[in-house]
Design brief:
139 residues; 7 strands; four-stranded antiparallel sheet
């Protein structure tokens, strides 16, 4: 459904492409500027990077361009749209954080949030799983 296409693209198998090289490669493929037009979040423990576009682009077309790109193929990387989810994980939380505070914070429109259905705290990890009523509330 192109009207609901994700603004984020997941790159898997990124271990052979260092972060700076990946950023330049993404600029080359998209014709856009990092930090101005898109952001890159690296998840090194999973050899994954998530690219989120700040401006409206055809992300399906971008994924197709990536799959045909010689350098992407040489690095054995794959690209796919990030699927929508109703839950997110918040990490590095202060020890004193409460589920009520997280609920109010993530329901704030100013923070890009929406109605929260549930908050599960994991104090031993200083993290929480926040589940939204609607997947649109977790940008």
């Amino acid at each position: 459904d192109s009207a609901e296409a994700s603004r984020s693209v997941v790159f898997e198998n990124t271990q052979r492409c260092n972060p700076k090289c990946l950023r330049i490669l993404l600029e080359n493929i998209s014709g856009l500027n990092i930090d101005v037009d898109f952001t890159v979040e690296l998840i090194p423990e999973k050899n994954v990077a998530v690219v989120t576009f700040k401006k409206n682009i055809d992300t399906k077309e971008f994924v197709e361009k990536c799959s045909q790109n010689k350098r992407v193929r040489e690095f054995n990387m794959t690209a796919r749209l990030l699927e929508s989810t109703q839950s997110i994980k918040a990490e590095n939380l202060p020890e004193s954080i409460s589920s009520d505070y997280l609920t109010v914070y993530f329901e704030s429109a100013r923070n890009g949030g929406g109605p929260v259905a549930d908050v599960q705290l994991f104090p031993e990890e200083n993290s929480a799983i926040i589940t939204f009523c609607d997947h649109k509330g977790n940008s």
